[in-house]
Write a structure and sequence with these properties.
globular; disordered C terminus; seven-stranded mixed β-sheet; alpha/beta; 7 strands; 282 residues; binds magnesium ion; binds adenosine-5'-diphosphate
Length: 282
């Protein structure tokens, strides 16, 4: 069982979209995938078609009431893809866990029990983190083997990355020596624009090969899929969004992939519209 934490303390950068669709792309290869929502906003369950307003067991019961993880797992409509939803109760968890001994490793412990009870049942576990570096995110980092950071290539993309890598380093030293920052994926990026190229160059300067070759293009199907309770692979299998997440899955599994070449003329056009966008903001 490989455990992957999808983390960025910024909201709206593509964590949930990446968790669901990378998960669906890995499931499409026949791997058994478990998605776990650690965000009280509970977007992950909704995205993959789990009604989070119905009374059901959630990650909150696992973390706060010590319920076995297996009791909170729900199948989704997509083959090989299961999910542990969250709900708004989880927003109280940070407070409720304050005085609990071992609160940083509750999820790790729960996943170890799951693996002991049903060895090999899940090959990949993806943890969708909340937009903060609180106890829920620390739980994800304590449980994970690898961290994947979705990033938006905007001017402030790198802001916060120093803090994030610091926290990853701390957890590595104190709680989880096997943890590694394994990849940064640029989401909702139009690689033809000059600003995007500049930001990606900057990320590469700091993080080198950790920046994945695969970038996720802006794609309306990715934004529409959640309202149908489906991954983009199920909702629009031929879309750019599905293609990008399939490629990300291949790269994540260690296959060599190449980024599409940037068409020159479009790059100029992109740069121009970029200046217009900046002007419009001012
Ligand atoms: P986070 O979980 O980091 O808060 P989300 O994955 O929920 O971010 O993404 C924020 C919003 O952006 C969602 O409405 C989502 O559908 C949309 N979105 C994410 N990635 C893309 C993309 N590549 N193209 C278009 N819309 C996207
Ligand atoms: Mg989210």
């Amino acid at each position: 069982m490989e455990i992957v934490a999808v983390i960025n303390q910024k909201g709206g950068v593509g964590k949930t979209t990446t968790t669901v669709n990378l998960g669906a792309a890995l499931a499409e290869t026949g791997r058994e995938v478990l998605l776990i929502d650690l965000d009280p906003q509970a977007n992950l369950g909704t995205h993959i078609g789990v009604d989070v307003n119905e009374p059901r067991k959630t990650i909150y019961d696992v973390l706060v009431h010590d319920m076995p993880l297996s009791e909170a797992i729900t199948a989704t409509a997509e083959p090989h893809l299961s999910c542990v939803p969250s709900n708004i109760d989880l927003s109280a968890a940070e407070m409720e866990l304050v005085s609990m001994v071992g609160r940083e490793t509750l999820l790790k412990d729960a996943l170890e029990v799951l693996e002991r009870e049903s060895p090999g049942r899940y090959e990949v576990v993806l943890l969708d983190c909340p937009p903060s570096l609180g106890v829920l995110t620390i739980n994800a980092l304590s449980a994970a083997h690898r961290v994947l950071v979705p990033l938006q290539s905007e001017f402030f993309a790198l802001q916060g990355m120093a803090k994030l890598t610091e926290v990853i380093g701390l957890v590595q030293r104190r709680l989880n020596p096997r943890l590694s920052l394994a990849g940064i994926v640029a989401c909702r990026v139009d690689r033809r624009t000059k600003l995007t190229q500049e930001v990606l160059d900057e990320v590469r300067r700091y993080f080198g090969d950790l920046l994945m070759e695969t970038t996720i293009r802006p794609n309306v199907k990715l934004a529409e899929a959640p309202s149908y309770g489906q991954s983009v692979l199920a909702y629009a299998s031929d879309s750019n969004g599905a293609a990008d997440y399939r490629q990300l899955a291949r790269e994540w599994l260690g296959e060599r992939v190449s980024a599409d070449p940037v068409p020159e003329a479009d790059a100029e056009e992109g740069a121009a519209s970029n200046h217009q966008a900046k002007a419009a903001e001012q």
